[in-house]
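Thread: Modeling a multi-component assembly for a lab meeting

Hi all, long-time lurker, first post. My supervisor asked me to bring a structural picture of a complex we are working on to next week's group meeting, and I have zero experience with this. I have the sequence lines for every component (819 residues in total). Could someone generate the structure of the whole assembly? Inputs are pasted exactly as I received them:
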Amino acid sequence: MIEIFQILLSESFWAASLRIATPLIFGVLGALICEKSGVLNLGIEGIFVAGAMAGWMAVWLGAGLWGGVVVAAIAGGFFGLIHAILTVPLGLSQHVSGLGVTLFATSVSYFSYRTALPNVSSPPRIEPFRPLEIPILSELPFIGSVLFQQTALTWLALLMVGVVWYLMNRTGLGVAIKAVGDNPNSVDAQGLSVYGLRIGAIVAGSALMALGGAFLTMSAFDAFFFGMVNGRGWICIALVIFASWKPGKALLGALLFGAFDALQVRMQTEVGAKVPSQVFLAAPYILSIVALVIVARRAEYPRALLTPWFKGQR
Amino acid sequence: MTSSPVLILDGLSKSFGSVRAADAISLKLFRGEVLALLGENGAGKTTLMNMLFGHYMPDSGKIDIIDGSGHAKPLQLGNPQASIAAGIGMVHQHFTLAENLDALDNIMLGSESFLHLRRNKSQAIQKIQKIMNDSGLVAPMDIAVGRLTVGERQRVEILKALYQDVKILVLDEPTAVLTPQEADKLFENITAMTKNGLSVIFISHKLREVLAFSNRIAVLRHGRKVGEISSKEADERKIARLMVGEETKVFSKKELQVGETVLEVDNLTISGSSKRESLSNISLSVNKHEILGIAGISGNGQTVLANAISGLVKSSSGQIKIDGKNILINDPSNIIQAGAGRIPEDRHKDGIVGQMSVAENMIIEDLNNSKIQSRGLLNNEAIMRHCSDLSSKYDVRGPGPNASARLLSGGNIQKLILARVFEASPKLILANQPTRGLDMGAAADVANRLLEARQRGSGVILISEDLDEILSLSDRIMVIYDGKLRMAETHDRETLGLMMAGEAA
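Re: Modeling a multi-component assembly
Sure thing. I ran the full set together rather than chain by chain. Output:
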């Protein structure tokens, strides 16, 4: 028990939690925007891979770091657009299309990696985002090393929480997105485009998801590896429900998962001799499921989620 | 009332495949008038309004909007935005409200640019307040629409249209879900609004309110306009004849001596997850040769009551007896074997298995019958014969016994269910909203079948939102409100209406 308290009190634990949470924050916010408009985007896992690959590749080919971020977002938006066309005007199964996009985006990413680098055993490294050291604040005890030594992408993720919250709750566009996810007829009756809103929401949400992937190759690590996304996208799908589709709770959920994950790594080194390491690896996922069971039973899904809408059909 | 027209529909036609849904319909709407549009299901009312609202592109014809200074301007067809811009507002029968948003957000939806980062709610509230004052339509603005009552939602729906500065308001069956009192209030508000120059078209099935509240009546039949009369000169008989092309059948309800009790429900209580899924201390009984009408606004426990009697939900306490014998609650097969026939509320979902054929749906509740199976093997020939016999007896029309049942129209699905239920000669018939959504002809057929069953000795429970139907068919009437059932001592519209609204009786 004492070990746990020591871990919880350490600066490195909290810094790691925030770092691990960052890609999840992007992912949950992206999934949230898609689902609020009424479309489940299971392409998220593949879009993470595409974002990770495209951002890193762009930097490796000579783009600036922020240029890489933009390329990653565009790649995510592209795969989101495929999902959007299949599920919105064509009204195909959102599950099937989403899984298809995940397979497609992952394969295309691996394929372009191999085509660009046919003969390398270890991927070339790029110069990733550096921690943003802010004079004075970074010197503060505890807070300084937890908060003010994160990279710009973590700050961007935190900023996006506020942006998405403002968009959803304070703008006409956000109101329209929420309406189209609840009852598309309400939007149609006001002369707005159901398809336009949904496609836009999916593309924007997918671009955000891709930033989660880009964080992995451009901030957490400095290169692209096969299998590096490792289910983070799926975690986001669960976290959206945990968050009841609210940006603030999404941040909380991502941080909670980050903390579980950071804790398990440290527990492994502390008591790893007595308990098999796989137990710790599984712990965050088990805890997520438990949290989900507790929270999701009361979750209020967007009413039109998964339901395609066709013009002129009531 | 000034007599200048605001809207001229000229020769509008629209075909879907080989069906002419609208056939050269011409219609004028005058400033400040209430025009009622009548017709059976499939007569073309909705098609016509969808063309007006830009949802459908007419095959031929044109629409002119006349502005305040008397200039006629052709409306761009097939474009909802153009219709909205021309001042046409539509209140759909099925509300087009987002239930997760409050009324204010629903009303403002689409009226502000997406590029604006700030919303001007206070200005909107001022405008809505003014509309509320002018029209008398009041609804809370700051509560999620999902938590409002049906009446409040309808007012929000109308406020939403008025907020867009409409000059022409189309109401599609606005009173279908309202109590008689709420409906009267709504028409008062509409009358108030027409004083300010608003013109209203309303679509309805209810002849009574059409006669009471419209200035003019236009009747459609089979996609054509078959009549246009001033409401002052019209009476129910005249309109009904225009609608169906003949005098409607008057139900011949014979006086019958009631027999012994068929069904007895004693202190049934069900605690569902929400109010509309709960019942408290319900007791009722139905006798042979008797129709018990249960009136009420939808969502007051009708569905759960029907499900409880059908054995589909678990009760917390109470008992159900058929023929004096206790029935195991929460077991549908028990209830069927005891001799109950059920006409479910959602005929598409619970009444048929859409993917299975018409013939299969005919026998689906009677699989143990030795006529259609022996030793577990179905006799296909007998099933087909059974199906064609019943189809002609009950006038089920469709693409044939082997076609999927979901291809039948709503009226024919209901006839299929009636055939299945009545052929089993049930002691008890539980009919939940049996005529909802049916046109006058099909509804009359259902009503006559129920009377026939009563004559034959069945006990019938008729759950309906249609007060006229309850009044014309029932021997006794109970009213369900908020999960509680009360016997109506007097059978007049006023008392029943008050009871349906939960007020003292």
